[in-house]
Write the structure tokens for this entry.
Amino acid sequence: MTLLGRVNHKAHLFTSGRKGLIDKIRSEIDHSSDIVWVHCASVGEFEQGRPLIEQYKSENPDKKILLTFFSPSGYELRKNYSKADWVYYLPIDVRRNAVAFLDTVQPSMALFIKYEYWFNYLFELKRRNIPTYVVSAIFMPGQRFFSWYGTIFRKMLRCFSHIFVQDELSKELLGGIGIENVTVSGDTRFDRVQAVAAAGRDIPQIKIFAEGHSCWVAGSTWPADEKIICAALGKLPSNKLVIAPHEVDKKHIENLLDLFQGYKVVRYTEVADQEMSAELISKLEAAEIMIIDTIGILSSVYRYSDFAYIGGGFGTGIHNILEAATYGVPVIFGPKYTRFKEAVDLVAKGGAKSITTQEEFETWCSRYLEDSALRKGNGHICLDYISNNIGATGRVLDGIYRMNRDK
């Protein structure tokens, strides 16, 4: 699928998924118990909110969870999420939709994950005195909330009952515009990635592919990342590569196969459901590159890596580095990382390396492949960083319980 094709496909899902949506919700909702509404922009925010949903549900089994997404990628991937009682697209933010949605759902509480500030929904929630929280929020000086033209955006922030932020800087910035109902609770993603690592999902095909070799994972890659990786491979010490592109449509996978022609490549979906025969084992052992041409397993793939490259840094911004760091894996990424606190922190600590050129990429890959002490040392920095930042889920829920109890 071409870039235009992907855009058109997502646009189709965006509009078709919202046709008759309020009527659909109205026909499916039941009010036998309180409904908690959780909203996420997309997949990344869902993973951030997931620990909250699951802990809240385990502690309040009588409550129901209604989960909404703005983006098609989030909804399509998680529409069957078992911990939510209902999963929908968020109806477009116009007043009539906000009124109809809230009239229908009648939530006892609303949680927005990280960001997504929709004026009509927030205004209606405040008007109805429904407790409304934003969780794992992060703010930076250049954002519109703090600009001369940011009046309407500041009004949206004042609609929240309480704001749970990731760091002290965010709290200070909000205090500077008169918003004091703020708690520094940390980032719930740390709890999520630690839980995934602790679950220890085994992927036998990748284990056999990687066993006995230096193996690294390139996750959430885009074409700009893939060109750098391909150009470097032939210059690196002996290694095996698992590459998991951000887009797994047929055309992108075909392009990857063309890019890596000359190498022994195996696609994950070719071997995922095969019986583990001697022939399959031999094929996996002989392969040099495995392409993960499916979604949903990358967070478990990182456990097989000696180091990881995280894509997006030569585009709009890097993807999730915590999924790799939680395994004690040092990470490398491109230059577009400064909007992500965890990346800034790990670069400063030495567990992560940002590269801007092909030569820098080759240098760090070679060093990690040749120097196990360096690799393990930087990996421990990543693991310690994860360990020192867990617990946000409990802090947020404790705060919410306390505020609702004191009302």
The CA atoms of residues 191 and 390 lie 5 Å apart. The first helix runs from residue 3 to 16. The two ends are 53 Å apart (CA to CA).
